[in-house]
Structure formats: C-alpha cells, structure tokens
Amino acid sequence: MAASAVSFSSAAVLPPINTESIYSGKYKDRNPGIISAGKLTATGDSARQCLEPPKRPASPESIRRFRATLRPDAGMPRVFYGKAYDPHLRWAAEMTHGVAIQPSLTAGELANPHPMSLFKYRLNEKKEQLYFSHNKAPLGKSHDQSTGLPNNLDTLKFTFGIKTEKDGTAGELVSPDKAREIVDEESEAGRELYRQTHHDFLVGESVDRKYTYPSYQKGKMYGIPTPHDNTGRKTQQTLKWLHEVQTEKASKVVSNRVDNWRERTQPQIGQVHDPISDTLNVPHDHTFGILVKPDAYGAGDLLHGRTAGTYLRGKDRQRGVLAAIRQHLKKANYHNFQDLMHAFKHYDKNGTGKIDIQGLRDVCFQFNLPIEPELLEQLMDYCDVNRDGYIDYLEFSNFLNWKDKLPSGLPERAGSALRKSDEVPAVAKEEDMVPKSPTSGETTPRRLEKQIDMAIGEHRTSASVINAVIGGVSTRDYRTYGVPTIRTDLPAPRIRRINDSKNYGDESDGYGLLNPSIHSQRGLSEKDFLMPRSKEELQTIFTNTGIRMTLDTFDDIWKAASQRHPKGYVSVEAFRSVLDEIQAAQIQQ
C-alpha cells in the first residue's frame, strides 16, 4: 500500500506556477515596483487534462477479489471471494465442449475455389459422367426436355399457351380518364339495390326508414349540434362534475380540534413523531422502566436443575475456547500418528507413563498452538478426571483423541484373555481396555463420563440405542423405505449439471458441517485434496506449505503414491499419506 501511495502522489504532481504576466513581452512595464493584483494559478494544462481525473493505482489482488464479490466490473461475473483462487473457475473459462473435428473447406474456398489445371478438370468431368443428373442437365447448359415433347415438333418456332390481348394499363384501370360526375353516376347505378340487400349506407347518409308522414322531409336534420374543440376543453368539462369544480375553487374549512389531532397523530416532515410529547414533563434522554439485575443462572441451569454452587452462567466462552483447543489437538494427533500409543509417547517425553503440564505445553507449541498459561491449566484440569495432577493414557484417549478412529496401539485380546507372550504396558490396566464391538477382537480404551450434567431420569433416545457402539440394537433386518439421501449406489458424474442436487457421497456430512476443517476457512474442500494434480503443481503446493525436501526424495514419494492408483494419478491426499507413513517410520526408528 505504501508503494501504491507513493506512485499515486508522484503521478498527481501539479505543473509549475507561471509567475510572468500574460502581457509579458507585448507591452513595456512602466511600474516594475508595483505588484500585479490577482492570484497566481498553475498554467499549461488543457481543458481535456482538467476534465480527465488522474489514473488511480491498481488495487492489490486481495482487494480485487473482495470487490469482485460486492461490486464486479462491467461485463465481469460475480465471484465469491472464497473462490477467487479456485482453479475450477479458470478451467471452466478455458473449457471447450464438444468433439474436435478436422476442417475440410472454408467458406471462401467453397465460394471461390482455386483454379484447376486442365488435367484435373478432365479428370473431374470424367468422374461426374457417372451421375445421371450430370448427363441429363450438365452444368452451364439448359435442361434437355426433348425426350418429353411430341415428334416432328419445331422447338425453335412453336409456342405454348394463349396469347394475352392488351386492353389497358394498370394506371388506366385504377384512374380512368373520366369526369367525377360520370364515375359517381356509374357507382350509383346499383347502389340502391345494395342498400336494400346489405343495409349499407355511406358516411353522413341518413337512413331511409320509409316514413309516410306528410310533413316528413327526408333531408331534414334533428337535434342540437355537439360543440367541438380541438384543444380538448369540452372533454375536460365532461370528466369533472360541477360540485368537484366548486370544491376546488372554494376555501377548505377545517376544525381546530381536527387540525390539532392531525398534528399529534400524523408524522411531520423533519420532526420525530411523538404523540404524547406535550403531556410528559421529562427530559429527552429519560429512560422509563426499572433496571432489572440479571440472574446468576441461565436457561441451561434451569433445564438441568443445577444447584446454586454449580451455575455455569458466564463460563460459556471459557468452555468454548477449551473445546476449540481440544479439537485442534485431536486433528493434529489424527493426522500425525498411526495409533494412540505413539501419540501418547510423543506427549510423554520423560517416559513416566503420564503427561505433565510441561509436556502438554511443549506439544502445543510444536503444533503451532501457543496458549496462555491460564488456559493450559484449565485444559489440564478438564482432562484430569482422577485429580492426580497428570493425564494418563485413558484420559488422553478420551479427551485429546478420537479413540474410535485410531487403533489403541496395545496388544489385542485373544478370546477373553491376553496372550501370554504379550503384556499390557504400564500405561493402561486390563480393565480399562474394552472391545470395540461384541464380535470384534480389537480393543479400545473405555469411555470416561465427563459431562456438565448427568442425564435426568436415565433418559435415552431411540437413536442413541440404535447407534450405540456396544450393546446397540442391530438394524440389519430393518426394512428400508424411500430413496437414500446419500446416493452411494449411483456413480458420481464427471461433469455435474446445475440442477443436479443429489449427494453422491462426495459432499460433507453433518459432522463436517458442525466441525469444519481448518482448510475450509481457506475456501478448500475435500475435492481439492482428492483431485489428481501434476508433478510440478504438487511440488509447488508442498513447497509453499513449508515442507522442504530434495528432488530425489520428492521423486521417490511421487512414484510410491502413483503406484497406489490404477491409472497412476497422484493427489494431495495420496502424496500426504505416503509422506506421513515415511515420517511415522522414522519416528519408530
């Protein structure tokens, strides 16, 4: 912005002020000691330069993408600022639909073909002789119709049809050379019969009603002629009644009581509408009512029936910050470690089997999550269920990880007892490990109850019973009705239409909407990570994220990622998965 401001100021430099008089060099100044009156102004600019404003500096890219959302330029589409850098927009602008065809002849070559040589002309004529139309009606000659004419017919002299006799021109037929009286007499010859059969009369002609009254005159006119004015004044008078005209001219009489009532009840221009301002003797900044002191409890305290010492009013922000910190640590553990045991050992730097506050602080700093000491103590207090001042493996699995998404990293059960060759590490007890499902041999840490309030009356919904991990109701034999919302049974189209609102399983679910990833804040979605990309584009992406590696290492990871796809495609997610596996192997070593 500083550079743009400097360029703008340099472009707006005013021309130098001309201190000489406009008569300089034309007349002799006989009083050089007297200063000329007036004000010196800048000269040298034309009227066009004065009317044209100086060019503004180009706005930065970060400002142009917001301006394209609110006020796009003329002829430009409106693009949301979160999708300004979306490559799909550039691909859609450069995309060409249809199948490419090989051009044959242009319109100019078809209208004006190139001249052929004599050999090509003879060769083309020989090819055209195969067609019947060419032999019957060759190009440049009239069609030979002699085969359909009678024999011994002289085609040069014989003519068909009847000869038309010339009587008069069209002008003589429309405007004959006759007097007006003769034309009117001829037109009135059968007019009387036409009046009787069709009751058709000319304009202004009176109707003959066959009256036999002796004093009746056929040409006599009755009534009063209607006055006519081309300005339309008579029409204006007919549209207005007499009492309306008199009301407009007369003065309006309004009661004083009605006038005062209108001033109080109807809004006035430039004044605040206050109907009872005259009846109140209070200042303009007076506030009515009684100030009510807020209660120490909220709606949640009333619903759960908390006691006076356990009210949570005012602690919502604190719990929200702790939830955000825990969510960040859960995502970091899920993306960087293969099981819960490796993640726990990374936190437990001393190898004591417990995580202290210093180890938690170091890991938060390593994951770019610097938090204040007060928040760190509150996080430690939230996760410490047994109140021993440390976070053990069970507490770590429940509050800082998605324990159902990652394997435990502990020896698995064989039947109902542990294998004799494997021993449970000191970080977990045998009763703390439970199977993930009644029929699964894989174990997971048991669930710790850490809620604000217990369920009132042990109430459970049917959805919680059906979706329970352990001891849930099986829905395998349940009958399914309707069409599924997520159409995983249909293949997703490569190019989706605008009116296609189906979810083919490639969109975010309810959990993703309630807990969006950190990438969604940058306008990225799951498709951007699963989209196949070129080798140079992937190298640029990972270099911009701060991951430095040699070209040989990048080529090895690229080859390993391309072997996992049947067509050799490599996406950001596939490349990152191979890179995570290599880093996990280095940590184990």
What does this structure look like?
With 589 residues, the protein is mainly alpha-helical. The protein has helices at 2-11, 47-51, 61-70, 87-94, 107-111, 118-128, 132-136, 170-174, 180-187, 191-198, 233-239, 242-249, 256-265, 299-304, 316-336, 340-347, 357-366, 373-383, 393-399, 462-466, 510-514, 526-530, 535-544, 551-562, 572-588, and strands at residues 413-414, 417-418, 433-435, 443-445. The strands form 2 sheets. It has a two-stranded antiparallel sheet with strand order 1-2. α24 (551-562) packs across α25. The two termini are 50 Å apart.
Our measurement of the CA-to-CA distance between the termini, rounded to an integer number of angstroms, reads: 50 Å
**Which strand order do you get reading across the main beta sheet?**
1-2
Q: In terms of structural class, how would the helical and strand content be classed?
A: mainly alpha
Strand tally, please?
Answer: 4
Oligomer: single chain
Uncertain segments of ≥5 residues (pLDDT<50)?
1-12, 414-424
> What's the helix count?
25
Arithmetic mean pLDDT: 78
Overall radius of gyration: 49 Å
Q: Tell me roughly what share of residues is in helical segments.
A: 25-40%
Largest sheet: 2 strands, antiparallel
Instruction: Write the element-wise H/E pattern from the N-terminal end onward.
Output: HHHHHHHHHHHHHHHHHHHEEEEHHHHHH
Q: What overall form do the CA principal axes indicate?
A: extended
